[in-house]
Specification:
Immunoglobulin-like; single chain; 4 domains; alpha+beta; five-stranded mixed β-sheet; about 475 residues; elongated
Amino acid sequence: MNKALSAFVALLLVLPAAASAQQSNADLQAQAQLLLQQVAQLQAQLAAQQGGGSAAANANSLNPNPSGAINVASAAGTGSAACPNIGRILKRGSTGDDVTRLQQYLALDPSVYPEGTVSGYFGALTERAVQRWQSKYNIVSSGSPSTTGWGQVGPRTAAAIALLCQTGGSSPVGGYIQVSPISGNAPLTVTVIATVNSTNSCASAIYQLNWGDNSNPVSIPVSANVCTQISQTYTHTYTAGGTYQITLSSGAHQTGATITVYGSGASPTPSPTPTPPAVPSDTFSASPTSGNAPLTVTFSGVVTGKNAGWCSTGCSSILVFGDGQQGAVPLPTSQTAAQNYSIQHTYTSNGTYTATLYQGAAGSGRPTVGSATIIVGGGGGGTATFNAPSLTTLVGGNPMAVSLIFDFSCSYSVNWGDTVVDTQVPAAGTCTTGTASKTLNHTYTAGGNYTITLTRGSQTNTIGVNISQ
């Protein structure tokens, strides 16, 4: 039977590459369904020969119990539930539950789908993931969706996915949740104990705990070679009456628990329609905003689907730090979602900088989330322009002495060119606005040509001087 399965894989790989371009969509759907049925028949025969029993005997059903514990159906590589079960052609622009199942299946392999976005929309990221999967399993590795089928899930690719699932091509996943309480008046705080990797798989996987009220789901990653189940506790508060479905899922596997939240009155009166929370506005903050260099600042806040830079395939807003560098803040993939962000940046030079988080791309005229002024080294005037310094020699009749006169704002550094450096860097927050005048005298110990370097904020001036004894 193993030889029969191998022969079937070989048959899949030698099917004409241009079949998807030569047949109608209905024909291809029928062909895909036929191939899936043949895979199931071969697997059933193999299981019978190996004493494995029926597929139904190898999977656990979802069994809610009075305590609120729910089991996710455990599935080894031989369980058909591990497959996305695709019965039509999927390509760029396709949407639906089968696209969601495909994305969940591809995300099980980070080398194939490192982004792991599960949106139900077949976009550019999904197309590239399908291409990587087809190349990895020698289905097709060149051409286009319309010529060779590269990047789309046609009958050959769908049947190959099904066969690899049936013969252990996907990792076993499983888990269950314990929920308490499962009903009560609003606001109702629910505690969920999520146990993942109950199959003790050594493969990596990502589980999603969804609260059912349009709030951000919780991602529970399991690293490769863990090989044991993991339990974690989460809490969530439902603020409005209604009926909600908590789900724990990974790939095609899912289980759920129903939560009933009553209105906040004295008697429990169920509200038939829950009111989803409003999507918050984008926020931006920085801390600390002043200090001596090097100064590490943490920028944090919330970004949402309301952001002008949002796109369904996953876009980012740009954070300009004000010192010539910038960073990216990923946006949620749903327009009704919000997510926290935190980015650190280190300012290495004294000065005053303006950090701005733009909505989407940075640029003049682009909408912004917010800005913050960062003062490094007591505010060295990173954006100010100072007058050029003046130099006087023969101070007090001494040919070895010079006098440097300059204006500054809070901090400065003077390198006399003979290893002597005079600096002023006040403590953060002690500076005042405006500029002041400063006169510094210096006596050289030997004659020669020297270059004096004056640094004020981001502005640097140099003056040459000849000292003759």
